[in-house]
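4.2 Preliminary Data

To establish feasibility before requesting continued support, the project team ran the inverse folding procedure on a target of 386 residues. The structure was first converted into the token representation described in Section 3, and no sequence information of any kind was made available to the design step. The complete token record follows.
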């Protein structure tokens, strides 16, 4: 096929050629369109957004949805399953947390962030207990790679979610229905308690209305005489629910322990890693449980962190370096806080840190001493460069 015929099939190509031909007639050198491309990119992929809470929706006793609208211009588009990084200041500490967008990607009037309380959390307590309509926040633009790719992922989708892992699933599910996509969507939702299942009535209604959507609820701590499925999403249960795993695409989202366990069960079933998409959900809670954690080092041990040319402070070994930096008044650009985006990289000058598997350090990072501070745990006195 001739090259020109192929390009003609690209959206906007013919229009671009027409504009180019018109400009050629006037002898323009394109200076009249200076910054046009950069400005267009900035609208689609802004570094920062100013958002206002328009509504706070109580989902369960432990979960709320915060509906956020833009204070200036349209919200940028996003892929269903992506997140924004929300910046907050709590008791003088500037920090941020990534939250998946639970609203449909087919509309851009607002972003819904569905937040579940974490018992030992810092930001979730603040959001759930203090935030009201009218409050404003800064955030990043939408980002992340946890979304459906129609070219590679197929149309038979299995979503394994625990707790607030429902958020990206809801966005994907709404996109399927809004765009009337011919996908098969099986959502297996694991929760601890029957009264803490987020969006459950909406999910049950959608399952009744759409033949291509199957909902399975699994409760790990059921009440007496509970008639539904109970237990954990082990390989046997997953196999019984979905049948042949070939050609199915699995999406896993929930607490770190949840997606680690689900990943191991899917591997036991013979699901190839390329057909498992995992949404990282923060640093590991118990890094000392990894086999390569240094012996004789306790999570409660204290070390000294020195920021070259700026100062030093004490930090606990079991606290991610980025958290302790923020708590002591230092900042590093960040987004995912799960070791994937690499924005929070800092230079390790001396000392040792423990890097869990989700750190995703590149060969060049390891060679030249760069670490991802959001998932790096200092196991001795360290010096870093921000």
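Position-by-position output of the design step:
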């Amino acid at each position: 096929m001739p090259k020109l015929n192929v390009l003609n099939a690209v959206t906007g190509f013919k229009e671009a050629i027409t504009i180019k031909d018109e400009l050629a007639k006037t002898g323009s050198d394109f200076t009249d369109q200076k910054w046009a491309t950069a400005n267009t990119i900035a609208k689609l992929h802004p570094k920062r957004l100013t958002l206002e809470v328009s509504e706070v929706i109580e989902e369960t006793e432990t979960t709320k949805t915060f509906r956020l609208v833009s204070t200036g211009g349209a919200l940028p588009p996003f892929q269903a399953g992506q997140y924004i990084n929300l910046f907050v200041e709590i008791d003088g500490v500037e920090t941020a947390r990534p939250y998946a967008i639970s609203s449909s990607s087919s509309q851009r009037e607002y972003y819904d962030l569905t937040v579940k309380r974490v018992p030992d959390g810092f930001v979730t307590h603040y959001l759930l207990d203090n935030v009201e309509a009218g409050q404003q926040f800064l955030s990043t633009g939408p980002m992340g790679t946890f979304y459906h790719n129609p070219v590679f992922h197929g149309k038979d989708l299995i979503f394994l979610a625990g707790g607030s892992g429902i958020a990206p699933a809801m966005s994907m599910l709404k996109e399927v229905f809004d765009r009337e996509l011919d996908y098969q969507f099986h959502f297996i939702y694991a929760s601890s308690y029957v009264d803490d299942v987020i969006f459950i009535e909406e999910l049950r209604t959608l399952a009744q209305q759409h033949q291509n959507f199957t909902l399975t609820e699994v409760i790990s701590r059921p009440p007496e005489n509970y008639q539904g499925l109970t237990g954990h999403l082990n390989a046997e249960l997953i196999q019984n629910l979905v049948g042949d795993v070939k050609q199915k695409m699995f999406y896993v989202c929930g607490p770190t322990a949840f997606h680690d366990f689900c990943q191991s069960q899917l591997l036991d079933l013979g699901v190839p890693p390329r057909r498992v998409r995992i949404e990282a959900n923060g640093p590991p809670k118990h890094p000392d449980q990894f086999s390569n954690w240094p012996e004789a080092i306790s999570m409660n041990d204290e070390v000294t962190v020195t920021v070259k040319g700026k100062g030093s402070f004490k930090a606990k070994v079991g606290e991610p370096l980025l958290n302790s930096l923020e708590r002591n008044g230092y900042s590093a650009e960040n987004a995912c806080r799960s070791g994937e985006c690499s924005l929070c990289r800092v230079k390790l000058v001396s000392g040792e840190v423990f890097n869990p598997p989700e750190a995703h350090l590149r060969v060049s990072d390891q060679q030249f001493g760069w670490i991802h501070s959001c998932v790096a745990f200092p196991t001795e006195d360290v010096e870093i460069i921000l």
